[in-house]
Structure formats: C-alpha cells, structure tokens
C-alpha cells in the first residue's frame, strides 16, 4: 500500500474499505424464485466527473445474475458504511492508537489541548463467524470483524506521524440481520499486542482456513542503518511512544513479521508473531488450501517473492522459507517468467525469537566491505536500496535467513528486483495465485547502464502496474534439487491484468488510462463468482477504484469509486456467511495528495472535508446488492 509523500523515502500507504453484501431476500428475485443462480456478471460504472462524486465513496454498478433456467436479472449495487475510524462504538474509538498498557496515546502537538491519536487509515478486514459466539442482543447472527489501522497520517498541527505512533487492530462484534444480511457494529475492542512488543505498520491481512487472522508488519526498518545511528528509521520514536518510556531502547529485529490473531468466542483475542516466516516488508501472507503453504507480498523497491512451507498444517510456528528466482521468458505487456525457488532455511518461531531477545545486531550477522573483495557478495535490496558487499559470519546463516531474509536471499541468488509487490490472493479450484505489482519500474526494468549487481527482471516500464497470475504445481524441487514438500509451489508467473500509461495528463489529472486498472494493490478472489477483485492505490488516477475481473470471460468492470486522494483497502471476499456473500473493503486517508487540476481540486477538497471530518476519518464498509450464491433463489 502506499502514500505518495512516503513513496520516495519510505514507500506508500493504504486507503479504503468496501464489502459486497449479498442479501438473501430480495423482491427482485421473485420471478426466478425457484431457479438456482448459475453465474454473476458485473456491469461496471463510469468514473466520476463532478466534484461531489469525486469527493465521495459510491457505486452505480450492478450485478447481472444468470439462473440455471436461462433467465437473467440485474441488481443495483450500493455502498454501505459500517463505521468510520473516528467513530466510538460502545465506549471505544475505532482507530485510536494505544500503548503497551492499552491506554490511548495522546497527541500533545497543540499546547494545553491533548487529544488521542486516531488513525485515518483503516486497512485489512477479516469478517468471520466464530462458533459459540454470544448473541449481539440485536436479534441477528453474531459475526466478528478484525480491522487494521495502518498508521496515523499527521498530528493536530499537520506534522507527519507515519511510523512514529504505533498502529493498532480492532475486533468488532457485528450483528448480521437474518433476513437481509445487513451488518451493524454493536461492540468494538482493541487487540493487545503487549506480548509481542507492539505492532509495526500493519498493512493488508487475510483470514486463514482455520479462522484466524494473519496481520502484517510492513516496511521493515534497516537494522544496519539503525545500528550506525539509532536516530535513523522509526524504531526509536515508535518504541518510546508504545512503551511511554523515553529511556526505552528500540530493536529493529522485533518488527517486520506476520502476527497471527485468534479471536475467541467471548470476544477476547490473543496474538503471536511468526518469526520463522521471515522478516521483510510484509504486505500480507495468504495461506493455500493445504493449510501449510503461504505466499507473501513484499512491498517496497528491490524486494523479493517469498514462499513458506509449514511443517504441520494449520501451524505456522515452524517451517521452511524460500525466495524466488525470476527466469524471464517474455518482456512484453508485463512479461512472464519461470520461477525457481531457493531455500533460505528452516526454523521455529522460538529459535528466531531467541536471537531477538539476546539483542542481536546487524554486525553480529554480517561482515561488510566497502569495495569488491573475495568472499563478499554484491547485492541491492530493500530497505537500504544501495549496493552492499556482505558476507555472512560463520554460524549465522539461520539468523541471516530469518532476520535479514532479503539480504540473505540476494546473497544466495534470489531475485531482489521486484517493485511495489502488494496484494496476494489464491484461486483454489484452478490452483492459481494472483499477485499485484503496483508499479513496473525501477528494478523491474532492464538495467541499461549495467550498474546493478543483478538484472533478472528486464521488463518494459509500465508505471500503472499489473496483476500477475502464478500457476501452482506439486512435485517441485528447489535450486539444489531438494523436494519442496508442497503441492502448491508457484512454477510460472505471467501478467494477467495490465495497466496503461498516458503520454500526458487528461482533464482530470489522470496519467493512466481511466478504464483500466492503475497501480493494483488489494486483491481478493471469489470462488463462487469466479471473480478477482482488485483495489487501487494509484497516484495516476484522480480517484481510486475497485474492479471486478472475471477469470473466465476476462471482463473487467469498475464497481466502486473512492474519494480523490483516498486508497481502496481492506478488500476481502467472504462467499458464504450464513447464506450471505460479502466483499469487504475500506477507504483510507481521503483527500491526501490529490492530482486534480485547479479549480476542480479546491471544489473536491471542500466536499471531502465535509464528508470525512476534515480528512481525519477513514471508513469501513461494504457494497450491498449481490444475491447470495449459496441460497440460490434468495430465500
């Protein structure tokens, strides 16, 4: 996910949330009340063209349903808000930042007027049904919604608070109307991360097949830079704010992992961090149907494609970490490649946590040279983005593999040239993984100057990015000929949905074709509807959109528009909860760095300030209107 001002120095941020509600009772279904639903096709909407629409979140799209008897019906879609990040639900403000003791972290930027820091950046959603959950008191089915609040954009005087103020996650109790499927939040609690030293910039997330939530920690701090100067990176300020202790020393190796959140039937939650899944810029982790294989987005410049294979199903506490080698087969239209997997190592969470608890530093793991030297490997990876010459110290291979996964992977020959690798989702039936690459540039272009230590990826530049399809296969071997114990190993990677740059900005400021996806970010796949949903985090579209792409017909439909300068985040398809289907998605940082020309920009900004508390509110919600596939006739 991304924020344009942070793209240069830190890389990006997220924006919005939406959900497709599939009501099971609809008068429009009466004519086909005995017909089973065969398929759903989305009829797209136009991009907004006036200031009021450009300052709002809305849809005018529709769903065309085809029944088994051959009849068809159209259903208009609407966007429904669950709550804003600034809303208080049963005494708790949704997006409030909390410290190690669960107390609000105060913004004292205006003397004598302390107020809590509250996020404007809701991101990941996991809507789930928990067996044994108590009734809500509203008469509906009780559900649970886990939501990330990725960062605080700014304090009360406009100074950036990104990465400085600890992030948070909420667990909301949701009442699901038994007849209409309408969702209403009845309670909300904050997740306690004190057992894992807090939460570092949680971006996207996912629901596991065993009904837990995989969170994320994005933009891992550079441990080498921090060791040289502790005032560099956000580690020091983050630590002091979370522990409310000016003397507390930070540790960059405590952050950059996948936390797993378990929500219990009484509404309480517990957290573990999976250190054995590697430390890098976790956009999210997505678990394959075998309940063992996990693929990750690694956001930033000069990043890697990673895969983890757990030792046991539904247990991510130990396993083997792999990094991909891109073997290019085509450079056109986003390109394609074969993938070879390099094993980085095997570890348990406990083994890696022991290194962290002992206060391991970058210099404990690597030797460094400032010029080419025997035994040193020249690499270039995130987070440094610079050419480094490194050698792993004897006996520190495991520490390198799991605490410096990208640097170690590059030393072993894995491809470290991916740029803005974002969302990940899986098509279980077809054994496909979909990966969003937001910008096809920088390390993914051909190195025409020959300056970089590696040039595996040599694509034609497309700033608007592309979504890729990875084919999964069994009986695969790693780069050293060892069997990979998974039937879900990505063997090829091909561009599927590709954006198109414009030679110059149009009348609305768009620099990418408005009727194609630009800068894909969130991805979620519906098995029932055979549809890949794509949310944008674009600096090239005046408004970001959510799209529906049918993997069979290849039809692309715009189904949601979010306010200018906002990002569409928190995308999650839930195909069947008590007979209803939802596609969750959120809106974050409305009005942030709009690319609109004046005077249109001023008009849009005025409406955004009215709609979103002077740009301080993100939004959690869903699209309503799609008939439920599971119930078929809607009854």
Task: Please summarize what this structure is.
The protein is mainly beta and about 625 residues long.
Q: Give the CA-CA distance, first to last residue.
A: 39 Å
By secondary-structure content and strand pairing, the structural class works out as: mainly beta
Poorly predicted regions are: 3-33
Main beta-sheet strand count, sense and barrel state: 9 strands, antiparallel
How are the strands ordered across the major sheet?
Answer: 18-19-21-22-23-31-30-29-28
Strand count? 38
Rg for CA atoms: 23 Å
What does this structure look like?
By secondary structure, the protein is mainly β. The protein has one domain (4-624). It is built from nine helices and 38 strands. The chain has a nine-stranded antiparallel β-sheet. Helix 7 packs across helix 8 (405-411). It is globular, with a radius of gyration of 23 Å. Mean pLDDT is 93; it is low at 3-33. Keywords: Signal. Residues 1-30 form the signal peptide. InterPro entries: PhoX (IPR008557).
